[in-house]
Amino acid sequence: RHATEEREISCVSLALDESQLAHVRNLVFQLRQEILKVTSTKSETSRVYQVNFQVFPLTKTLSKNETQEPT
Q: Is the separation of the CB atoms in 13 and 58 below 8 Å?
């Protein structure tokens, strides 16, 4: 639907603990704020884009004695 040079799609799956998750969520917040700062300086634009950030679990939380297999 959209030409490659008009879009950016990427994904990464990560194994994180709670402190790392908090840090990643903070990085997403900071990036969102930076994008808003950069894009709010120009009064005339030619197009509207949507930028998505998603962080969500792919597995259940394990106890210390469990091992995880992908679902």
A: yes
